[in-house]
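[Automated response] Your request has been received and processed.

Submitted sequence:
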Amino acid sequence: MKGQANIVAALNEVLTIELTSINQYFLHARMYKNWGLNKLNSVCYKKSIKDMKQADELIERILFLEGLPNLQMLGKLYIGEETVEMLQCDSKFQLEQIPKLKNVIALCESEQDYVSRDLLEEILEYEEEHLDWLETQEYQISALGLENYLQTQVGSGD
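Generated structure:
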């Protein structure tokens, strides 16, 4: 099924976001693992895997629309050097990503591509949930203090 060029281009923009996210969260996961922060490692690793699955769904949709998925583009990675900075970098990434997703969803709606819209709405829901999780971590750090917060992250990751 030949898709509209603007929809394919927009889906490729979202694909770029997902590919960037895979790399950022995977690196942060491995940094947390190296420091023994197993719970943070687990969440970030699962996020990178979920992003990979979302990228796969986008690739399949772009191919279905007879477009060419662009896997060569990556956006800017925000990599922190310590826990608080890493969480802030991830929040910054999420806050940049969510409005872009909403814009592409609106485009799909206006072009009556409801299948792409539904796919993107699922991605958006997950990204908003992850942003909420990040904001919760930042609140816990401010409420508990960094040292106490880090102690809670040492246990086994799910």
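Summary generated for your ticket: The CA atoms of residues 106 and 117 lie 8 Å apart. The chain has a mean pLDDT of 96.
If you did not submit this request, please reply to this message.
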